[in-house]
Amino acid sequence: MKTYKPDPRRRLILSAGGGLLLSAFVLRRAEAADEIEIAMSGTPTGSDVWFRPNGLWVKRGQAVRWVNRDVGNVHTTTAYHPGNHKPLRMPKSAHAWDSGYLLPNESFVVTFQEAGVYDYFCMPHEHAGMVGRIVVGEVDAAERPYADTDAQLPAVAVAGFPDIASILKTKR
Ligand SMILES: [Cu+2]
Known about the structure:
Blueprint (H helix, E strand, L loop, with lengths): L7 H8 L1 H17 L2 E7 L6 E4 L2 E4 L3 E7 L9 E2 L27 E6 L3 E6 L9 E6 L18 H4 L5 H7 L2
Parallel strand pairs: 1-4, 3-8
Antiparallel strand pairs: 1-2, 4-6, 5-7, 7-8
This protein binds copper (II) ion (CU).
The site of copper (II) ion has 6 residues, from loops.
């Protein structure tokens, strides 16, 4: 049989209920503000399109939000992964993502839990070189990841991935 022993800490928390609700709300706001944005955009005619920044370093657990800042074009953020009918260019055990078409001002969030290098592309603009790379946590700056699958991608996409060393240097 359990005996009830009042926990003074618990009582304190209960009496501060209103304040707790407020701080939970503030906390959620802070989390959203902690997201890092990658803009999807292009020239008005669509002759040039990009992710900005196209290279980014983040710590594990970081949320990244892609936002379509383009007024006249749809974009996607799509991981290089067999589930997206592409060769694997991300950690094998991590979750792949595909935003589907994002209209202007629509956005999509991915939280990165596993260290490694993640390459992604825009479905309608891969052949225009609209690709990006996210490095999560500790990786070797000299690494040239996924070179074995380069031949399966458009050359302009392969050329679009920033190298690891420059991503680690600028953290962008
Ligand atoms: Cu695009």
